[in-house]
Amino acid sequence: MRNARIRPPLATIYLAIMLTGCTNPAFKNLGTEILSSTGVVTRQQAEGFLSAGEKVVKSQEELTPEQEYYLGRAVSAQLLAQYPLVSNAELIKYVNKVGLAITAVSEQPETFGGYRFAVVESPQINAMSAPGGFIFISTGFLKKLPDEDSLAAVIAHEIGHVVARHGVKAISNANLFSALGAFAATGVSVGAEQVSSPVDLGPITSVFTDSVNGVVDKLLTKGFDRRQEYSADLYAAELLQKAGYDPRSLPKVLQILEKETAVDEGGWFQTHPDPAARLEELEDDFKFPPAAPVVSQVRTARFASATGFIHVKGR
Amino acid sequence: MQKFLPIVAAVLSVQLAHADELWVQVRETKLRAQPSILAAGVADLKYGDRVDKVSEAKSWAQVRTVRSQKEGYLPLSSITPQRVVLLARGNPKIKADATEVVLAGRGFSKEVEEQFKILNQGARFDQVDQVERRCSASTKEVAQFVEAGGLR
Predict the structure, then answer these.
(1) Same domain, B73 and B133
(2) Do the interacting molecules here have an ipTM over 0.90?
(3) Which domain holds residue B5?
(4) pLDDT classification of A271: cutoffs 50, 70, 90
(5) Does A302 sit within 8 Å of B98, measured CB to CB?
(6) Is a pLDDT exceeding 80 seen at residue A247?
(7) How many domains does chain B have?
(8) Which of A32, A67, B17, B54 has the fewest other C-beta atoms within 10 Å?
């Protein structure tokens, strides 16, 4: 058994057993028979193998942070095929400072590869987040924002999607189950020994591709579920208050968006619920402070300095 | 049979373990002097490092590093009670208590990304790499930014 390796057909049999009925005792017995009949593993080892596999499926209700990171990279690579990056160093640094000031007070102040805030060239009003903490805002959106607190509101909303893993939830249950099954089939331990299966990347790559496409479709076309958008708004308001920004900047942004709906139907408007409905929902759920805090001159000045150069092409 | 040998650079195994034992599940992080990501770092930690839990409050855990016995804080989201074992390529003989092994997390990985790139040549991973290189700010920069802007 030492260094035993599972041949592809065996891994396939195992995967089929896991995906179709590992919790059914009758099916499990059949699986044990099939595995032990190959002669590669003993009956006892086969039982252990299936038992370990059961734990794989039960324990992996969601992707690990590392897996989210690779999913987020691929989703971002697809988004960046459509939206060119803005390379202005001052703006990039500024947006990242705003973003990290907000993530610092969140329940997830860091991700596997770190939060990344990028600005993309587009006349459309748009902001998107990919799993793992890749967050994008368009120059068209930045140009419509009046101050740092409004920018913080947009970013906080996107952070809300990342922390709540709305991107990962865009993967269909069937795909996620296939993914977890594929992970299970590529290596488990049996007894006291590590069993390494041959790595057939084909099935995982296929599931990965479907998952990436599912998330990209949500971000660019379908949009997240309405309840997910409302919850991201509510979380954003809480984060803004916690970070020291004016939480009323979020309704302010929604009001700006409402005015823009008449002239822009793509981007954010295609993928987000009506701003008026979001505003109403938010005001029902969040208790906004009664008076405006003193507007920070420092924040006003640095916002103007970092975003002043933006010229939106196509507008 | 050789052709079926693992080609991945790292194999991740996750095990259920003692409740006070925790493993770092982000690529790299710092043990903080206070439960804040902007607090001073007291030790560098990386993916798979083990720490022992001292206490837990809100979204942070007070922990002690196994190697240097330094105490500090880590976000709960950056640690997991499941054992993370990195099996380096060419060294697949690291053994775990296999009865508790629940995952060999090759899953979505660098290797799968490479396959995806071949199939999706229009995807701009070069731009993603640029985002990872350029889109960031240091803890010190963010702390100064927060203070100057009257944030908290």
Answers:
(1) no
(2) no
(3) 1-86
(4) confident
(5) no
(6) yes
(7) 2
(8) B54
